[in-house]
Amino acid sequence: MKLLKILLFLFAAQALWTETSKLTVQFSTAHINWNPHYAYTTTEAQIFTALYEGLTIFHPATLEPIPGAAEKWTISEDGLTITFTLRGNLRWSHGEAITAKDFKNSWLRLLSPDTKAEYASLLDDIKGAREYRIGQTGPEAVGIKALDNSTLIVQLKQPSPQFFAILCHYSFVPVHGIYRNLADWSANPSVPVNGPFVIRKRSAGEVVLGKNPYYWDAENIKLDELHLLFSDNPDEIIAKFNRFEVDWVASGIKITALGIPEALVTSPQFSTTYYYFSNKGKAWSNGNIRRALAMLLPWEDIRRELLIPGTSLVPPIPEYPGIDSGFPPPTERKSEALRLLKEAGHPDGTGLPPLTVLVPAEDIVTDAMLEVWQAELKLRVNLDVVPFPNYYSSVKQGHYDIAMLTWTGDYADPQTFLGMWTSASSFNEAGFSSTEFDTLIKESALLPHQERFNKLSEAEKILLHSGQVMPIEHFPAVNIIDRRFVEGWYPNVLDIHPFKNMVRRKGYKIPGVVKR
User: Domain boundaries in the chain?
Assistant: First the structure.
């Protein structure tokens, strides 16, 4: 009997040793917009690393911009003209050649006032881009030129050290002409793409991607298939990982049931959770009123309960000055808040309209808002809870006075947290407007590194000191992945992991132990 058990053990081990070219990734349930011009979430950003490729891409470990669809580029001495040379073997997933005009037309479509794309304002460094985006000029005024099939020339209005990192974002990939003017791609599962993988099958709970034979670097892609699973059940998700049915859990994580502790990977992330005011209501566009309400909250008690409490919008990064709310000491805050409200014509909050707080779930901050503001002021506070995955669409509808967001930077620079609050930004759904803030952001672009950081920190002070933004926490990146078996996956501050670099290694054994 003992010999039989040993033989059965070895037989089971052998079943786990077979090499596979399939990687299975688990996400929590998400609404995926397959049109990169309208996508918004970190889940979409991760999936699009498989389907699309821009002129530049992030190095998977360092996040430095490296050549993607562009083989190389040159920069003029004044830093205003960038000439991209495309790779000679770029093709769509159905075999048609990709040209510089595809990039030009895709970017112009993104910038079109009719598109109303979230990330369009990231191209505002291009000459004429902002003016076209807000409807002041036509597309011919934008500094994007396809010189020939393989040469794209971009004219900047000022030097932009972060421009190549910006182009790594999925919004700036080429979109095929047939689909360029279609906002909703939900009925088109086989859209031409230019990335290392293509969509093979798509359903509510699973998306299967296959290797793209026309991808320029196809011979170096080691995976033949990607299986992307979606579930709202964290118990089911972790059980699949424990049974070796999933290689990487990217979201929907339940740590307590993890059977392989070494598979838990936590790392610093360029991310901040914050509450912010909508300025679309007259009362909440008043900085003194916002500051008064923010000042009344018991921030020391709130942050004491958080894992990595945040006092700034921009997460801590080297050489960037530390910023906080600028509130007076706790014992003086109530009197100062009441003074500000009285000066604004609302003593004790009298006359302020009911305030609606939109959140995906109640938390310690919403509890404080409901308790403190209604107890200390003549103010009614309504809580509107819209769980994920419907929360972000509710934010876009704008029916709130305060909302919560977790923002992960699109590139590793303070600008990705601050530029979104400029008056003309396509991200500025709050309607925040400050001439001083806009000027500081504009001036920062012309300064060398440390001076630029100092100027950006002055802009951040305006957001915090006016109560426009109330930072809560800097979340770490949390993933479950057994890196003994998945190569090419690296922790990084953007928590973005290009699929093209990944390799699923075959299992191996240690005597007496069955390995994956």
Answer: 20-52+195-268+478-516, 53-172, 271-473
Six-digit token pair at 71?
């083989």
User: CATH number of 53-172: 3.90.76.10, 3.40.50.970, 3.40.30.10, 3.40.50.300?
Assistant: 3.90.76.10
- In this prediction, what percent of the chain has a pLDDT beyond 90? 80
The Cα diameter of the chain in Å comes to 87
How buried is residue 169: exposed, middle or buried, by Cβ count under 10 Å (0-12/13-18/19+)?
Answer: buried
Quote the mean pLDDT of the chain: 91
Please write the tens of the pLDDT for every residue from 168-227. Answer: 999 999 999 887 777 677 777 678 999 999 999 998 899 999 999 999 999 999 999 999
Give the closest residue to 24 by CA, choosing from 212, 223, 176: 223
Residue 475 is given by DSSP the state: P
Q: What is the CATH number of domain 271-473?
A: 3.10.105.10
Rounded (10°) CA dihedral 489, 495, 498, 499:
60
CA distances from 212 to 69, 94, 215, 217, 489 (A): 15, 9, 6, 10, 20
> How crowded is residue 301: how many other Cβ atoms within 10 Å of its Cβ?
11
Pick from 35, 54, 151, 30: which is nearest to 500 by CA? 54
The domain 20-52+195-268+478-516 belongs to what CATH superfamily?
Periplasmic binding protein-like II (3.40.190.10)
C-alpha separations of 14 from 3, 145, 255, 513, 515 in Å: 17, 57, 29, 12, 10
Q: Which residue has tokens 């004219």? A: 155
Reading the block at residue 92, the tokens are 């769509």
Three-state DSSP state, 8: helix
Look up residue 501 and give its DSSP letter: G
| Local confidence band at 1 (pLDDT 50, 70, 90 cut-offs) | very low
Q: What share of the chain is helix, strand, coil (3-state, %, to 5)?
A: 30, 20, 45
- Kindly tell me the burial class for residue 421, based on how many C-beta atoms sit within 10 Å of its own C-beta (0-12, 13-18, 19 or more): buried
Of 211, 181, 208, the C-alpha closest to 196 is 211
In degrees and rounded to multiples of 5, residue 510 shows phi and psi of -110, 135
Strand partners, 5: none
Q: What is the DSSP string of 412-452?
A: SSTHHHHGGGSTT-TT-TT----HHHHHHHHHHTTS-HHHH
Confidence of residue 28 (pLDDT cuts 50, 70, 90): very high
* Joined tokens for residue 442: 């504009």
For 509, half-sphere exposure in the C-beta direction (CA atoms, 13 angstrom radius) is 14
Residue with tokens 């918004």: 40
Q: Going by DSSP bridges, is the β-strand pair 225-231/81-86 parallel, antiparallel, or unpaired?
A: unpaired
Q: What is the pLDDT, as a whole number, of residue 382?
A: 97
- Block residue for tokens 């859990």: 249
* Integer Cα distance of 287 and 240 in angstroms: 49
Average pLDDT over residues 379-387: 96
Q: Which of 309, 267, 303 is nearest to 473 (CA)?
A: 309
Pairing mode of beta strands 486-487, 355-359: unpaired
